[in-house]
Amino acid sequence: MQPDAAPAGRRPAKVGAVIITMGNRPAELRALLDSVARQEGDPVEVVVVGNGAPVPEVPAGVRTVELPENLGIPGGRNVGIEAFRSEGADGYDVDIMLFLDDDGLLARTDTAELCRRAFEADPRLGIISFRIADPDTGATQRRHVPRLRASDPMRSSRVTTFLGGANAVRTEVMAQVGALPGDFFYAHEETDLAWRALDAGWMIDYRADMVLYHPTTAPSRHAVYHRMVARNRVWLARRNLPALLVPVYLGVWTALTLLRTRDRAALKAWLGGFKEGWTTACGPRRPMRWRTVWRLTRLGRPPVI
């Protein structure tokens, strides 16, 4: 059973939120900020990062950072993460960070409090992935359930990755294993962080009761989708997998892509990104331990799928 509050004598966990925006959804951003402000318990501190664009008008007390260029999703979020670090400090000014898409909306007023309770109840829990639901239909897309058995989005479970724009991370995780891989720009940056966290002994939960409303969309709406998905898949493997598993993992994904992709232009972009993943620097290589491979397998997703 989860505790109703922090134990006597211990302060409640401080919660911050990082939101990146291109400045083109001011109404949606304001609605999201209002939903964050309505959270029960101590107020959530918020940083909004203008990712190569001015930040629209925000309520008093919300901090803003405007970047001169678009650093991509992980790069922009990393700037927000660093905004919660005091000068010269090793750690962060908050205990938990929420990462929320600027066109999302927290469906409940107790999400921050549920995060506090979940992290308090389980010291090994490092990351929580929220359920994303369409605000009109309540439906959750299969791709938004971060496990292979995704037919029942209402079932909470331990998982091996998380959703980038609807999650909570214990800041101790990032202090230990580092933040998101900024060079990824878009796609798979969450799995890179998830694998590093799991290798360090942390766990990840998918929680169906923590809901972010978000309009139903297709990831392929992004022009760079196919190229970056392929490039970053290779980078992900090169950075994190034992050498024996790199060709197996990439071979499985190549076969799946060839079977699924019917659009010739999309396949050409994917193949170009796959080549780019092998011919460009992927960042530091820190292969996970074999016991982490076994942990991922026991959790239902061995790192070859």
Automatic annotation (TrEMBL):
Class in the EC hierarchy, top level: transferase
The protein's annotated pathway: Cell wall biogenesis; cell wall polysaccharide biosynthesis
Domain annotation Glycosyltransferase 2-like: ranges: 18-145
InterPro entries on file: Glyco_trans_2-like, Nucleotide-diphossugar_trans
One Pfam family matching this protein: Glycos_transf_2
Keywords of the record: Glycosyltransferase, Transferase
Protein name (Swiss-Prot/TrEMBL): Glycosyltransferase
Organism: Streptomyces fragilis
